[in-house]
Task: structure prediction
Amino acid sequence: MSDTPATALLEIHTYALAGMGSVPRHFARWAALAADEDYPDADLSEDLFHAYLVSGNEALSALWSRHLTAWDFAEDPQWALAIPARTDERRTAVYDRLRFGSDLRKALDDAVPVAKIPGPTVITRDFTPWYTPERAAARSFYWTSYEQKLRDKGWSDAAIASLDEASRAVVERLTDPEQETARQAKGLVVGYVQSGKTANFTGVAAKAIDAGYRLVIVLGGTLNLLRAQTQRRLDMELIGQENILRGADITDLDSLVGVDYIGDDDSDWHEFVQHGARPSVLGAFDIERLTTRDNDYKSLAQGIRALEFEKREPTRPLHDQANLHHAAARILVVKKNKSVLTKLVKDLKQIHGLLGELPALIIDDESDQASVNTLDPKKWEQGSTERTSINGLISQLLKLLPRAQYVGYTATPFANVFIDPGDDEDIFPSDFLISLPRPSGYMGAQDFHDLDSAIPKEERTYVNSQEKAHIRDIYESTGDRLQEAMDAFVLSGALKLYRADHGVPDGPFRHHTMLAHQSVRRDDHAELALLINSMWHQAGYSSAAGHERLAALWASDFAPVSEARASDLPAPASYEELRTYVHKAHHRIGSGGQPVIVVNGDSDRYFDQLNLDFDRTQHVWKILVGGTKLSRGFTVEGLTITYYRRTTQQADTLMQMGRWFGFRPGYRDLVRLYIGREEPFGRNRYADLYEAYEAICRDEETFREQLAQYAVVVDGQPQITPMQVPPLVAQHLPWIRPSARNKMFNAELVEIRSPGRPIEPASYPVNNATLKRNTERWRPLLDSLSATPTTFSNPPDDSSSLTRTFEALTGTVSHSELVSALSQLEWERDGHFDPHLTYLRQLDGTLAKVDDWLLISPRLAASTRVEASVLGSLPLSLVRRSRQTGKISFGRIASVEHRTAAQRLIDGASSSPEARPVHGAGIGATTGVMLLYPVVEGDSHSDVQAVVRSGAADPSKIVMAFTLIPPASAVSTDRRLVRFRAKNSRTDGATIPAGSS
Result:
């Protein structure tokens, strides 16, 4: 190896990359320039660089990781126009500009793989670009500090770049704070439950403050527990020690009176951001807190002067850059509480002329809670808008602050997108709706459900099935399994302690919790807590019987799951190695003689008494009973075991109850969800909570997928704007029932185009007479089916290493015959299929040409097959499906294997003969595919058999359900996928513009 040491090469590369700025350039030239004075004889060859990389030089790899990742994520840079971010093609473009050879490229790819993760999905209306990379880089004091804090916390370069991208997408759609004319922008950011939305809005606040926003109001929950949690995060990661101390000497106790975090029981003060000096001394500006960890907004402590901004140029407005960038910023974190917000509004009203000059940002955490106006418009007085208290106070804030921007954050967005967009004083996200990508390391729906798994149930294992690994069913036949859940809590705690003793970082193990949620009633909470407490003291965790029970659970559950899911983590060879850790876990959980905390109060005083502050308490190892009060915004740290049996008909309530979602570093394999599969629900009804949860997760994922699909810009214009999202949601999420508010929208979804993509309606009729009429309308098409089955084959893929086959009856019908049948069908919701039908009708050559359709009627496996004639047709294989809990719609109609085969036919129509059926019934480029199922609604095999008599199915008990996949060529040249039109708005006065057609 050369005489040039790694430290010298690192310094040269650091200066060279810094000199390039945000653009990759000819690296050899910049390296030579950087080395010229201090290292004129340095070896700058690619061979030496390559040698240090392959030898594992961490500092050099980290440096290049930051820069390569930044270039990979750069949004539409001039040097890589039309090359998508986070792709191999983008990385190649970077290497080309750096002039790197093939060996060095390979070494860098090995050291810094391209992070092929999705970016945020942005639905936006046109905006004036102002937040350019140059402007962001010129003023980035607080963002740079926050970015370094995240790096210190162990965030990867890809995670930081992803946050940078997502927060920039928000800030660039706010109004330029230096702009002369006042304008309010309103947006909504949609994350996942417990997925790190706070990190995103902290990044947004940092960038917005750097850019010139001088008043930031964060609406942080409805309890001080939640508000204080948010305040502390912002203080620690954004505001920093120097701004908190405000010049006080940390060694002088007298000067620290009234300063939070110091001298109390908060042991993490050393982890708070340190800027090195007061930011104003460093050439930036200070942040003044108008609320603290312990004190919500009470009234301006320093009087109105706290919101007086000194102007360097008194004759110019505050938003003029001559004044703006020298003024300190103010931050408030306030509860969504009527009295608190009323005081804030009252104080602001006393500041007259300044408010019109003050760039402000309102961040509304959990914006679908309390913020939405829930009063029925039909009950308003003529000509007036009546509001709920919090909604009204937010509206007043927006009126008082004409330069205020509003950004809501939530994981359950539907209440927000159904706000009346015609009400300019409300919080409808009229400017942008941003869906954040699923963050790396996050345990969400995909980690608890086998969504779309092609693996047969009997072949699922701890390795290939999320359900088998993490879900523990509660049926009447299993008993309540509460003792087992408690044993799992003790055992998982012992395993965490074992791992910490064997080299696994123990930070994530500081807290260890179990949540038991069985009812919304407080009396039930007290009863359950009493039961758990009694069971705890009788469990015998120190006895031979207790250890025998835990050893059996370890051997049958935790040992095999951890071996399958976390083989890289240390594991005990036997239960005996765990015994001492079981004792320690038992001691921690039972400390104070009370293993259970009931969480169901309404007041701040109640929560202050719980000692449930995860930030200030050294270890919270407890069983929490309740859950409703912790269902929004509050992160239950260390949650490992959940016991969930509460029924509800509200989808957003059920989703927010999903406290088992979140980040579980070092213990993902230990997470268990004990969930009710047949819970009493109303009169003579039972709910499968796991199935209901899966259905809601599918709805939300469908919504996100469609936003991503329609976010693609066509001819420089967005396909849809935020105002056109409500009818889109109403069309595709049947559980959102039309309400009076829907009638206020005048944007109507007219057409959905699905070239090469499945169309699978779900809102089939319930009425038997209607079902019979629909079956009769399908009857002519059934004559096209051949009596000889066709075999379809799916090759090995990510879901299975085996080739899977199935048989089906097939036939071909003309496009006009299919459209004729579809046009006559009746639906449970009028107009449900109209947007798809509008598209299909135009495939006669008007929009594109489809000649015919391959009908596929799959046959089930012989062991479960029930065949019957439908109105005299060939015998067809009947299938059983259930409508989703609380809905009129079915879940997925087509099975995964059937849909995969159909999709392969479409994808390979012109170029992949292997995608065709074994017996040769292939399709051409102008042929679509239809999967057709005679569906029997029911819960058991006997329900299917009951509709058949003498080999014939009762047509009034059959749902002729289908999945259509049009050819990929069935699209117009403009590639537009949705079309809207404006309703007649004279009756309601709405002003939503029509979308492009």
Notes: Residues 230 and 350 are 28 Å apart (CA to CA). The first strand starts at residue 121 and ends at 124.
